[in-house]
Amino acid sequence: AQTVTQSQPEMSVQEAETVTLSCTYDTSESNYYLFWYKQPPSRQMILVIRQEAYKQQNATENRFSVNFQKAAKSFSLKISDSQLGDTAMYFCAFMSDGEGGSEKLVFGKGTKLTVNP
Amino acid sequence: DAGVIQSPRHEVTEMGQEVTLRCKPISGHNSLFWYRQTMMRGLELLIYFNNNVPIDDSGMPEDRFSAKMPNASFSTLKIQPSEPRDSAVYFCASSLVGAVYNEQFFGPGTRLTVL
Lengths: 117, 115
Known about the structure:
The structure holds two protein chains of two kinds.
Chain A: E1 3-5, E2 10-14, E3 19-21, E4 24-26, E5 32-39, E6 46-52, E7 60-61, E8 64-69, E9 74-79, E10 88-96, E11 105-107, E12 111-116
Parallel strand pairs in A: 2-12
Antiparallel strand pairs in A: 1-4, 3-9, 5-6, 5-10, 7-8, 8-9, 10-11, 10-12
Chain B: E1 5-7, E2 10-13, E3 19-24, E4 31-38, E5 42-50, E6 53-56, E7 65-71, E8 74-79, E9 88-95, E10 105-106, E11 110-114
Parallel strand pairs in B: 2-11
Antiparallel strand pairs in B: 1-3, 3-8, 4-5, 4-9, 5-6, 7-8, 9-10, 9-11
């Protein structure tokens, strides 16, 4: 079974600075998808960024980017120019490539990020 | 699009009572997922459906939990009888099989408190 580990329960960063959230996973599959979700106090789950395992290029979405190291099974999230609205729980998630069928998301325990003014 | 709709948003009940949570997926989506979020266990899948058929219910804690999807636009998660340890936030998510990344879209969740 796949597992996802987020080793940083809590982190804080000053507004406008850069922060990196860590995530490692364990799988024997060769193709899969990786995601970062944001959960603000409203508890809505919001997709931040996603990566397909066979793509070597790291995904970027505006201020958010990932460092995907397939051999090391590492998928870290970098937030640049942090904003107060980035304060939230961040979850790393893994999804198998279901070959035509939807697959479940396996989540890490989350990292609580606080952006300080 | 209205997104995934869940009801109720909050539910407070007493131990032993039956609880029914409801979900309306995004129109056109053909996969539906029920997740539970607790402090102790984090986010975990309970069950998911493809084309209204249950595919994986290995996450359903015990026989007190049941889920149905009678049609493509509606699903229920029922707990009978409820216990205090069932207190959690329950999320419903939907996706379109074959879409890019099979991205799952989450509803706002139902916060369940069992006294």
